[in-house]
Amino acid sequence: MLFIRESEFWTDEGEFIYLVKKLLIDNHPDDADKIKRSGVGYMVISHDLIMLEVIRNAAEAVGPENIDSQAIYEAAQNYSLTIDGIQRFSFTDTKRFGCDRVTVYEANGAEETIVRAEPEWIPLIWVN
Prior knowledge:
By secondary structure, the chain is of the alpha+beta class. It has helices at 15-27, 32-37, 45-62, 69-77, and strands at 2-5, 80-83, 86-90, 101-108, 113-116, 122-123. It has a domain at 10-96. Helix content is 36%, strand content 21%. A hairpin with a 4-residue loop joins strand 4 (101-108) and strand 5 (113-116). The mean pLDDT is 92.
């Protein structure tokens, strides 16, 4: 079975997965293996990081007391997230879904493995 993903899997290497693993171990040391076996739900951290950085950028632009949906929208339009030297997330005035690239993993039930089938991050083409 093939999976198309916008974030890494536990078996990957790189700055983002190292951060996720560190946060997992720091915050759930006794449950880390169980959490890893349950899937990739912990990878949602990438979306949390994006949202928090956009809110911070909005606060810096308009002041914390003036943050509203318009300020967040404007801050998001200028936001991008580069991981391991590759821009992986961004927004524009018409692109509201942040993902810029995906990759492919292969799950093998007989071997009980999930491995990266595509070594590169594949760019998504957005049309208006």
